[in-house]
Amino acid sequence: MTGLQSPELFSLAYLSPMTNATILIDPPLVIGGHRFRSRLFLGTGKYRSNAEMVQAIEAAGAEVVTVAVRRIDLDRRKEEGMLYHLDPGKFFLLANTAGCYTADEAIRYARLAREAGFNEFIKLEVIGDKETLLPDTDGLLKATRTLVQEGFQVMAYTSDDLITALRLEEAGAAAVMPLASPIGSGLGLLNPYSIRTIKRRLNIPVLVDAGVGTASDACLTMEQGVDGILMNTAIAEARDAVAMGAAMRHAVEAGRLAFLAGRMPRREVAVPSSPSSGMIE
Amino acid sequence: MTDLKLIVNGEPRTISAPATLRTLLATLDLDPRMVVVELNREIIRRPRLAEVSLADGDTVELVHFVGGG
User: Fold this and answer.
1) pLDDT per position as a tens digit, A18-32
2) pTM, 2 dp
3) Nearest residue in chain A measured CA to CA from B43
4) ipTM of the assembly?
C-alpha cells in the first residue's frame, strides 16, 4: 500500500507493496507553521451537488478546501452556505479573495474571511483581467504587505513569474501559488521551467494553483518539485467528479514520489537495456 | 414605534426601532455563527452583535462562505 498516513508526522510514508517496508518518507508540508496532511488542495466551486463535492474531496484525500466570501442571498435558503456541508473540524477551510480586482477590495474580503473565525490563512487573489483572470501582481504585492502586517498567513495566487514570486516572499507571504495555466482553463502546465525555477529559488512553499485539467497534468506538475497543487474545475467538471478526485490523489502522490525518487537523465541517443555482449553468432 | 430604513446586502429593508444587529439577524432567521457582519464598512465581531444598535440609513453586509476555488 502506498501513501499510508503517519499521523504523528503528518507526512507520507511510501511502503513497498511486496514487503511493506518503508521506501521513503515524504517530509510534511508546513505552511506558516501549520502542518498539512495532503499536498492536494481542493476548491469547492462548480460541483453539480454538495453531496458529490464532499465525496470527491474525500476520494481526493484533501484536507485543505477553499471557500469564497459572498453576500448571503436573503431570499433563498441559507443552507447554501458551505458551513452546512463542510465540517470545519474535519477540513481546513482556506478562504479566498476570488473576484477581487483591487488590493483594497481583496484586503476587505480577507478581513471578513478571518472574522468567520477558522484560521489566519488567506488565499489572496487580486485579478487583473476579466478574460484571462490573470493576477494583478502590483495589487497582489500591495495587499500581501498589508495583510502580512495584520497577521495573516498569505498564500498568494500569482503568475508564473519568478521576480513577482521573489517579491512576494520578501513581502512576507507564507506561500506562493503560481498558476499552471489560467483558472478554469484545464490547459495543464504550460511552463514547467518557470514553475521549477520559482521552486528552486524560493524558500517558502510553492503550490501550483489553477490550470490542471487531468491526472497527468497534476503528476507532471508535482514532478517539478512543487510542494502541492490546488485545483477545482478539473474535478468539479469531470463527468465523474468522485473518480477524478481519486485519480488526482494518485497523480499527486505519483508525481511527488517520482520527484523524490529522482528521474533518470534525458539522452538524445538510445542506451540498450539488455547486454550488448553474449549475442549468438 | 418607528421603522429604521437600512440597506442590507444592497437591498432596502426596514426594521422596527430599536434594533441591534443581533435583532436583524434574528429577523432574517440567520445563525450568527454562520455569518460575518459589516456595518457601514466596519466589521462587527460576533460578541458585539447584541450591543450594536442600528440607526436609520445604516448599510449592512451579511456574508458567509460559499463554494469557490
Assistant:
1) 887 877 888 889 999
2) 0.90
3) A112
4) 0.92
pLDDT greater than 90 at residue A81: no
Q: What whole-number distance in Å separates Cα of residue A103 and Cα of residue A46? A: 25
- Chain A: residue nearest B68 by CA? A45
Out of B9, B66, B68, the one facing A74 most closely (by C-beta) is B9
- Decide if A156 contacts A177 (C-beta within 8 A): yes
Pick from A50, A59, A113, A132: nearest CA to A84: A50
Using the beta-carbon criterion (under 8 Å), do A69 and B36 form an inter-chain contact? yes
Alpha-carbon torsion angle A93, A96, A99, A105, nearest 10: 130
Domain B3-63's class? alpha beta
> Which three cell numbers mark A246?
481519486
Q: pLDDT-based confidence at A233, cuts 50/70/90? A: very high
- CA dist list (Å): A170 to A135, A141, A144, A174: 18, 10, 10, 10
3-state secondary structure of B21: helix
Each residue's pLDDT tens digit, A153-202: 999 999 999 999 999 999 999 999 999 999 999 999 999 999 999 999 99
Which triple of cell numbers denotes residue A85?
456541508
- Shortest CA gap A183–chain B (Å): 9
Tell me the CATH number for domain A29-261.
Answer: 3.20.20.70
> Does residue A15 have a pLDDT over 90?
no
Tell me if A119 sits within 8 A of A92, measured CB to CB: yes
Identity of residue A118:
F
Active site residues of A: 123
State the Cα–Cα distance between residues A190 and A231, nearest whole angstrom. Answer: 15
User: Minimal CA–CA distance to B61: which of A74, A81, A150, A125?
Assistant: A74
